[in-house]
Amino acid sequence: MPERYPHLKEQDPEIYALIQKQAAYEASTLKMIASENYASYSVLEATGSSLTNKYAEGYPAARYYEGNEVIDEVENLCINRLKQVFGAEHANVQPLSGSPANSAVYRAVMAGAEKVMGMPVNLGGHLTHGWKVNFSGMDYTQVPFGPSPETGLLDYDQIREIAKAERPRMIWCGATAYPRRIDYEKFAEIAAEVDAYLVADIAHISGLIAGGALPSPVPYCDIVTSTTHKMMRGPRSGFILCKEADRYQEKYYPTSKFNLAKRIDRAVFPGLQGGPHENVIAAMAVAFGEALKPEFKDYAAQVIKNARHLGECLVKEGINLATGGTDTHMLLLDFRKEEFTGKDMSDALAKAGIIANFNMVPGDQRKPAVTSGVRMGTGALTTMGMKEKDMEQVASWIVRIVRAMPDASAVSAQIRGEVAEYCKQFKVPGLWEE
Ligand code: DSN
Prior knowledge:
Helix content: 40-55%
Bound molecules: D-serine
Oligomer: single chain
């Protein structure tokens, strides 16, 4: 492994050694956590740049500190690239990550303890979509919906019925554990029928949308939020896109002088955050620049081809997948019929160097701390350069482990060596390349 970070190595060898240790671990294992990826060296360098030293509370041309002329150029470049990537009217790039972005949405469109319709975490949603132990479930009332326990698919007629009966003020469409396309047009019809704001949380799939491999929610939704470190391959951060005008201004904000875009900006700063992380905003600009290149389209398409092929190989060997397959980067392996749990399986995979996470699957009767499923994704493997034939190799390792359960320790140990050897033929950005 190349020696990096010479100053850090000299001044703080303990942290330096831990960074190198994690890098070595990642370079010899398969990063299959569906929400992770490898950022490019350019993204890493911008994240680690001297822009970290500047306070810039406020927005471009309206800061509360002097000396932000260059910082304004950085943030404007980031905003303009992001708007170009998604064809959005308005963009805010200051949310520190996905949950802060979603918190700002509540502050921008919810007045009190109104109803928010979203998927609970155990049905594939996110903490911030109204889950009971999150602020969004404590301060607001969640109206839950989720995929069918039988098919694993969203049932739009049922979603419409729930929305009409409950009349939520806001509807989240978006998921952390749903491998199929979301029909934003249908959601938009439903939201319009009940005068609800429609918000898409595209954290998992924003890179696939940016690369043109999945349809965009931007034309259909009032607001779209995302993280930037998943399929987008940026730094750990978040953003919010929205329409300038609020179509419900008369109904919900008749006396406000602020349109939707202005309310989003005010919710992020000063509503929830102080100084933005301009080094990270610069790194986001780099990632959005990468997403605008033609090769990013190839990347996004290959991520999905890889996930589909991996799924087909697993199904052929008798492994059940929620919904039977995938349209995205994500697979949900369904072990409801097995004696072993999702956690048993993700532990066995990790011992083999295949790093994924245990996850609830539709119709799961087990508790969230064990689950019956394993969630995995192909974003990082595709960034390493893996293609369909590599997915066949990955599938054969997974199958060997499943066959050896409930005690796969010997098989996992054997595969651990094979995985490490296999990884050597790929360049892992940020770990091995110079
Ligand atoms: N933690 C993310 C995930 O793994 O899906 C969601 O925020």
